[in-house]
Specification:
Elements: H1 3-15, E1 27-31, E2 34-37, E3 42-45, H2 48-51, H3 60-72, H4 85-96, E4 100-104, H5 107-126, E5 134-138, H6 147-150, H7 156-159, E6 169-172, H8 177-183, E7 188-193, H9 209-219, E8 223-227, H10 242-245, E9 251-254, E10 266-270, H11 291-306, H12 309-326, E11 332-338, E12 341-346, H13 353-362, E13 365-366, E14 368-370, E15 374-377, H14 385-399
Parallel strand pairs: 3-13, 5-6, 5-7, 7-8, 8-9
Antiparallel strand pairs: 1-2, 2-3, 4-10, 9-10, 11-12, 12-15, 14-15
This protein binds pyridoxal-5'-phosphate (PLP).
């Protein structure tokens, strides 16, 4: 690392809370699938800010919409109407087939808002006695970092010394429909689950799982809440990951790519009366639904469909997965994923995934390890076949090295 890079890193370390452990690269520019560091070195971004820049870095049409709107009006609060919120509602509802929309900012806020809404629905519509609502979640979940959410995490780092936590959550294994059937009681209001567990290491449930889950939820009048903050908006090769399973959630959570990486925008979508239970004064957010966010999200959704990014994710994702499967390396334990949400899990003897990500950085690829042994690969959805092949060559030569 050069002197200036060390300076940025050291200054962050001196003043910043040390709640991240970034790879040693300081980025200053991005375009499409590429990012550049302060020295001018170019990298293929295989993380996409955890899927938030699915549309590619600094997409010109989203940028134009943002700049144009920033000149006109940025924030009104919901005390007044603005001329971007209604078209945003209309467009996202048409695209996803949802009936009601609640706009928020971060993903965690969308999750919190869904939890509040399904509890209220439970008391006011389902008839659960007040204070007794139960929400079922899965082991190894990741739904964000607020106090409410980390309280039902099963990751010790995520929870330790942050309690006491809110009650009302029941944890079952992911991918186990029988466990869900057993956990449901008359007080169960919702099952909150990721279609594919992203932070856990891109874990796909067994085939047929979500069909059973959907049936159980319908039979027991339990709201199925799918956290599609990472899987949604084309990442897995469909608009929503639920479409792979041929099901529809009652409540869908979107975030990350909803703004193409320009701005925090999230949303709770519901196709029944869950959001209908919220009355004026009962929930809100100063920035939620602001005109700048709505203009950005509208452009982010438009380019996703107009430019064929979802189909491209399916096509390039299949090519990438095949290519990864073809790599003959003793370090690889398993390759898995769907669309452009991919992961390479290393054998424990191969050494830490972090070491491989650092080696990839030297080859011009930025990827991030998760859970010690897994390298996650999630490039922007605009990646081309040539770029996939370029990445595969470098992955193959890195993964055949031994860093144990
Ligand atoms: C990233 C993520 C969140 C949290 O989103 P933030 O914007 O970081 O609060 C929630 N759920 C899933 C599945 C995520 O991947």
């Amino acid at each position: 690392m050069s002197a200036s890079v060390i300076d940025f890193v050291a200054t962050e370390a001196r003043f910043g809370a040390h709640n991240y452990e970034p790879i040693g690269v300081v980025l200053s520019r991005g375009e499409g699938v590429w990012v550049w560091d302060t020295e001018g070195n170019r990298y293929l971004d295989c993380l996409s800010a955890y899927s938030a820049v699915s549309q590619g870095h600094c997409h010109p049409k989203i940028l134009a919409a943002m700049v144009e709107q920033a000149h006109r009006l940025t924030l009104t609060s919901r005390a007044f109407h603005n001329d971007q919120l209604a078209p945003f509602y209309e467009e996202i509802a048409a695209l996803t087939g949802s009936h009601k929309v609640l706009p928020m900012n971060s993903g965690a806020e969308a999750v919190e808002s869904a939890i509040k809404s399904v509890r209220k629905w439970g008391y006011e519509v389902k008839g659960v006695p007040d204070g007794h609502a139960e929400i079922i979640v899965c082991a190894n979940n990741f739904h964000g970092r607020t106090l409410g959410i980390v309280g039902f995490s099963t990751d010790p780092d995520t929870r330790a010394h942050f309690g006491p936590f809110a009650p009302g959550f029941k944890i079952i294994p992911f991918g186990d429909a029988a466990a869900l059937a057993e956990a449901i009681t008359p007080n169960t209001v919702a099952f909150l689950v990721e279609p594919i567990q992203g932070e856990a290491g891109v874990i796909l449930p067994p085939a047929g799982y979500f069909t059973e889950v959907r049936e159980l939820c319908t039979t027991n009048n339990v709201m199925l809440v799918l956290d599609e903050i990472q899987t949604g908006l084309g990442r897995t090769g469909k608009l929503l990951a639920e479409q792979h399973e041929g099901i529809e959630a009652d409540v869908t959570l979107l975030g990350k790519a909803l703004s193409g990486g320009f701005y925090p925008v999230s949303a709770v979508l519901s196709n029944n009366d869950v959001l209908g239970t919220l009355r004026p004064g009962q929930h809100g957010s100063t920035f939620g639904g602001n005109p700048l966010a709505c203009a950005v999200a509208r452009a982010a959704l438009r380019v996703l469909t107009e430019e064929g990014m979802i189909e491209n994710a399916a096509r390039q994702g299949a090519r990438f997965l095949e290519g990864l499967k073809d790599i003959r390396a003793n370090t690889i334990r398993e390759v898995r994923g769907r669309g452009l949400m991919l992961a390479v899990e290393l054998h424990p003897e191969a050494g830490r995934a972090r070491r491989y990500c650092e080696a990839l950085q030297g080859m011009g690829i930025l990827a991030k390890d998760t859970h010690e042994q897994t390298i996650r690969i999630a490039p922007p959805l605009v990646i081309t076949s040539d770029q996939v092949d370029w990445a595969l060559e470098r992955l193959a030569s890195t993964l055949t090295q031994d860093f144990s």
